[in-house]
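Reopening: structure tokens for the cobalt (II) ion complex, inputs below.
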Amino acid sequence: MKESEIITLKTPAEIEKMRVSNLIVAEILAKISEKAAPGIATIELERICEEDLSRRRAKSAFKGYRGYPFCLCTSVNDEVVHGMPSERILKDGDILSIDFGVEYNGYYGDAAVTVPIGNVSDKADKLINIAQSALNLAIDAARVGNRLFDISYAVQNYTEANGFSVVRTFVGHGIGRELHEPPQVPNYGPPGKGVRLKEGMVLAIEPMINAGGSEVIILGDGWTAVTKDGSLSAHFEHSVAITDRGPYVLSKL
Ligand code: MF3
Ligand code: CO
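Re-run output (same inputs, fresh job):
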């Protein structure tokens, strides 16, 4: 987080540069999602990502960030976020969250998806769908004249109405020349409150949704966040610009 709490507004030209960074994120995420299947180790996905990044001369946003050692976060099943690529082999019925960011030409992009590995349970399938829809509803609230927590409330209201819970330990964030800029974007909060959304704000909106309780714990590696009750967790993220023509989803293919 920057020291200043001032939200930097981006010009249309800057937003187009951010679109370029976020398209790189979207294309690589799509490729990795396709490769994610029963029998592949998550470290292999990391290698594919590394290769693609260097071919494009783009830089990982995560590797080296506070000492994080990988380009990807790969969080399996009860892992909420910041799971690390490893020799762990994905198996039929797992769900995998892939979180990925780049810096390109001075601007950051950041997005995440959760994908089913082979055939997953109805519960896992529902969790993925609800988390994806919660993000879509949040994006739709990212409009000039709305307030910040309208975005937050959209996630919370829809998620809880569907019997799942919202993780509170981690939040979304502003994004631009830095990966994490003000404001923080919680996935819960009172509608009609928070700063007024303005043209030129760019937000990384990232609901983390648990099938059970909302609590998380951090494992001994200092990174991997898992659900306290062992329930499944899903995570989706898009970087979204607020424009006079509505939300512009920069990280969508
Ligand atoms: N999408 C996450 C975020 O916004 C990923 C950060 S992982 C880290 O913050 F390695 F960079 F910390
Ligand atoms: Co993020």
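The mean pLDDT is 97. The CA atoms of residues 22 and 109 lie 4 Å apart. Marking as resolved unless the reporter disagrees.
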